[in-house]
Predict the structure.
Amino acid sequence: MQFSDFGLDNKIMSTVEHLGFKEPTEIQQQAIPAAMTGHDLIASSKTGSGKTLAFIIPAMQRLLKNRALSKRDPRVVILTPTRELAKQVFTQLRMFTSGSQFKAVLILGGENFNDQVKTLEKDPQFIVATPGRLADHLSQGHFYLNGLELLILDEADRMLDLGFAEQLAQINKAADHRKRQTLMFSATLDHAQVNDFALALLKKPKRIAIGSAHTEHKDITKRFYLCDNLTQKEKLLQHFIAKEDHQQMIIFTATRADTDRLSTLLTEQGLSTVALSGELNQGQRNQIMDGFSKGQQKILITTDLASRGLDLINVSHVINFDMPKHTEEFVHRIGRTGRAGSKGDAISFVGPKDWISFKNVEGFLQQKLTFDTIDGFKAKFKGIKPKKAKVAVKAQDNAKSATQVKKPKAKKIVKKSFLAEDVGDLPVLKRKQAIAPQDIEDSEFEEQN
Ligand code: AMP
């Protein structure tokens, strides 16, 4: 299939040619025509598979071909969970809007509010935004959404995780009319909260799933290493930095404190390193991401702040220094490499504190994951065996010998599999309830004002 088969406007075709894309990716082949027929969509496909253009192209086509419902209101709103991702989507969008009659603006938390009011007064057709800040402007009447034609939610599941359900509902309500089309995209869209939300927001959505988050990403080689403790993880990290033939590398840690500590450690060793964490102001964050994407440093250390969407073509290695709290973030983190057909390596360290996350990832990927070893780095830690079987037998014995079966007691014992004292400070087992953005450790996502 060719881009020309979609019947796209010449302006879109010339931008695609300018970008040098020969043929649409799989998600583009399915999502572009479906979106062009006006369907609501829930679309998922693996990381780095061209999702952004799968929504930008039909959005552009719609604006070029249809008359606006309103002269002043934005016609397309694209929402993303993080500012970094919003900026990246905006950059791709600008390639299509520049030289056209359409104005596109970027509205992010953490940036000057009054400047944004002035920007919104210019009546842009496209808004790319993070949801909290956009909802603030909407509440204050700085723009209206009665004429909105397309609402696009990129990484919708992450926005819900971050507690933006209320803001998304507010934006949805302000644009609640028959002609509105809604598109939801992510690499991971298969959990209950997203489905409930989709039911509320989307009208008879068409579902497009290219592979699934569970299927093997053939361009990314996954390796796992057992570690006893922090010191061993640090040694292993230094080994990989020295021995692996890498271009750029992203190291993911569990907390901001770990990011800072590792950054200091590697910088002291003369390595070209930069740390990205949520407490930095937006200017600093932009500077760091710009520098890293230009190749000014070889190593970026960060938390899940940078796990989604970022398209940095020279990232050959992702290292999970700690396993992620939210299982599906594993897929997004490793998806920072192996993009657009290039090959990548994902290396994960699994210590006692990571064990439950590791098992959850194994369940999520529906694969038996095995551990690799390296000479000189042998861990004593071999994983934690579930105690269920033993405990269940004990409970059965108790039940037999007791004249009265004490059900609550047996239940209490069974609950003890994966005991807290075995693994210390446990990562979250299940998806957390939506948390308010201000509660997010690292305050790494969008500020409210
Ligand atoms: P995305 O999944 O949208 O972040 O895109 C991942 C990468 O694929 C980006 O670098 C895009 O520029 C690139 N890309 C998007 N569409 C195509 C295409 N049809 N052919 C080749 N590369 C593409």
